């Protein structure tokens, strides 16, 4: 099982954690929502729970709860800038479909 980051995503996380002054890494998960079933939840982690799985990627800890990992195993997280917009993007090999607005996915 693995989660990966592009260099752009790792740089964004490292920079944000440095400016923030605390935190252990990036927390990645999912929640049931949207028209297709699931949506990604991304936040900065201040701690690691006993049931979390931790991946060390490009000097960044990516923390995923075990339940979410089953649906996002193999995902690559990227950080892209398009004009004035910037966001994390996900390349999840388990996705079978996405809603039209791109906010949710099904597996």
CATH topology category name = Hypothetical Protein Aq_1857, Chain: A
Main sheet?
A: 4 strands, mixed
Helix content: 10-25%
Beginning-to-end CA distance, first to last residue: 16 Å
CATH architecture: Sandwich
Helices and strands, in order, run as EHEEEEHEEEE
Strand order of the largest sheet: 3-2-5-4
How much strand content do the residues show?
over 45%
- Assigned CATH class: Mainly Beta
Would you tell me the overall average pLDDT?
Answer: 87
- Structural class assignment: alpha/beta
**Shape designation:** globular
Task: Assign the CATH superfamily.
Answer: HesB-like domain
Description:
The protein is an alpha/beta fold and 107 residues long. It has one domain: Hypothetical Protein Aq_1857, Chain: A. It has 2 helices and 9 strands; from the N terminus they run βαββββαββββ. The chain has helices spanning 7-20, 66-72; strands at residues 4-5, 25-33, 37-45, 52-57, 60-65, 76-82, 85-91, 97-98, 105-106. A 4-stranded mixed beta sheet has the order 3-2-5-4. Strands 1-6-7 form a 3-stranded mixed beta sheet. The chain has a two-stranded antiparallel sheet with strand order 8-9. The chain is globular. It starts with a strand and ends with a strand. The model has no long low-confidence stretch (mean pLDDT 87).
């Amino acid at each position: 099982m693995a989660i990966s980051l592009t260099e752009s995503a790792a740089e964004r996380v490292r920079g944000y954690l440095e400016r923030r002054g605390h935190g252990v890494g990036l927390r990645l998960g999912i929640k049931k929502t949207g028209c297709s079933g699931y949506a990604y939840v991304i936040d900065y982690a201040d701690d690691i729970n006993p049931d979390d799985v931790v991946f060390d990627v490009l000097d960044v800890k990516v923390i995923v709860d075990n339940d979410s990992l089953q649906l996002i195993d193999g995902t690559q997280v990227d950080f892209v800038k398009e004009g004035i917009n910037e966001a994390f993007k996900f390349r999840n090999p388990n996705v079978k479909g996405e809603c039209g607005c791109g906010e949710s996915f099904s597996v």
